């Protein structure tokens, strides 16, 4: 019997509505992450930002084969030694603390880890990198997020490394960023 890898997917709190319920605090993960893990043969396990995990992420990491850090709100600039930009959204201290602890321990264990959007930014910060808090300051916002809260599609080029081998002609990606990597970490 083939054992399917269990992948922890970080969730976050947000008001949600369904049926006759409105603005109920809910732990959510966009469905594309869950479906992506499932379609790749994994078992998606949603992990809420439980404050106890900031102190000890072992209860999650002891039972999974990989970690997927998803997108979402801005990281606290204090995590990389910066002051907030006027356009930086109020961070979620709980989510930042839980995801940072999960990531630190996953890296220590050499657990396969993928960061998407905010998750990629957190990986960069964990390795000593910094973020560009508002890429519009560089005149590039139209490419990444022409309208807040809406995705756009744009081309990315790949150069060197595994990604270039897998996607030698580049790729079209979805984007809704107003932040991005500045100094790349080690």
TrEMBL record:
Q: Name one GO molecular function term.
A: gamma-glutamyl-gamma-aminobutyrate hydrolase activity
Q: Give GO terms for biological process.
A: polyamine catabolic process
| The UniProt record lists the keyword Transcription regulation | no
UniProt key word Oxidoreductase = no
Any Pfam family from its record, for instance, is Peptidase_C26
Which Gene Ontology CC terms are recorded?
cytosol
Q: Which UniProt keywords apply?
A: Glutamine amidotransferase, Transferase
Record protein name field: Glutamine amidotransferase, class I
């Amino acid at each position: 019997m083939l054992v399917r890898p269990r992948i922890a997917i970080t969730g976050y709190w947000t008001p949600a509505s369904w049926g006759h319920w409105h603005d109920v605090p809910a732990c959510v993960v966009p469905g594309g992450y869950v479906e992506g893990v499932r379609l790749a043969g994994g078992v998606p396990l949603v992990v809420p930002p439980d404050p106890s995990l900031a102190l000890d992420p072992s209860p999650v990491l002891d039972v999974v084969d990989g970690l997927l850090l998803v997108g979402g709100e801005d990281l606290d600039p204090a995590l990389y030694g910066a002051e907030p930009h006027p356009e930086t959204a109020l961070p979620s201290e709980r989510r930042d603390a839980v995801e940072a602890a999960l990531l630190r321990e996953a890296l220590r264990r050499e657990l396969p880890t993928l960061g998407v959007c905010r998750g990629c930014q957190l990986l960069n910060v964990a390795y000593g990198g910094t973020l560009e808090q508002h890429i519009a300051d560089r005149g590039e916002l139209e490419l990444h997020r022409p309208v807040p809260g809406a995705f756009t599609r744009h081309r990315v080029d790949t150069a060197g490394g595994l990604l270039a081998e897998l996607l030698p002609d580049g790729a079209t990606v979805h984007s809704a960023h107003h932040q991005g990597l500045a100094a790349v970490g080690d």
